[in-house]
Amino acid sequence: MSRNKIQADADAALAGVLFDGMTIMSGGFGLSGNPEHLIEALKRSGVKDLTVISNNCGADGFGLWTLLNNGQIRKMVSSYVGENKLFADLYLSGDLELELTPQGTLAERIRAGGAGIPAFYTKTGVGTVVGEGKPTEVFAGETYLRETWLRADLAIVKAWRSDPEGNLVYRRTARNFNPNMATAAKVTIAEVEEVVAAGELDPDGIHTPGIYVDRVIRGPSYEKRIERLTVRERPAAAAPTAELT
After folding, report:
1. What are the domain boundaries of the chain?
2. pTM above threshold 0.90
3. Mean pLDDT of the chain
4. Is the pLDDT of residue 245 over 70?
């Protein structure tokens, strides 16, 4: 028997799920693939003392930045903290805890959490501040660092399409961390741009099976922001050549 997981809006989707001190995974890479409406609903809820696992913490005035600015985040587990002045200021002042994790390691820790693998070894971070206090072991003459899985109370992810049962399809670079996060939390809520009828998604094209997804919302609108605009002048047009007669 199929189950319709579509909720009226982001506030309804988060109802009964939130509590202070919880751990939340939030998909996205830069400004691509962010569950922006669910993040705004988290802000409205006032839930606080959060540990947030995400590649970065939004951009000025957008995404997870809004929760940071509202004092709702206690700790970030991230791989990139540059170009976010608020993030840097809060960390340097001691008002924000940070677990800095190399990007590939972050992705694998999340994937491991979803796959039920409590620990794995990687060469990334050996001999650096990232490896301080972590066990190491030698394999084939090389030193490897032991990293542990990441799991969460809630994962909020952004997809392109969903059907009523929560099967998800992501679009291009907006896929990023979203599929792994969808598998690694007790509750997963997805926001999507389109909801299609049951049976309309090609089974071979589904990226996240609905078994991992508890609730879905269709976002009313999405901003296609550009994080950093770079332009160049067009080259001068070549001078016309005389035709031979």
Report:
1. 10-118+149-218
2. no
3. 92
4. no
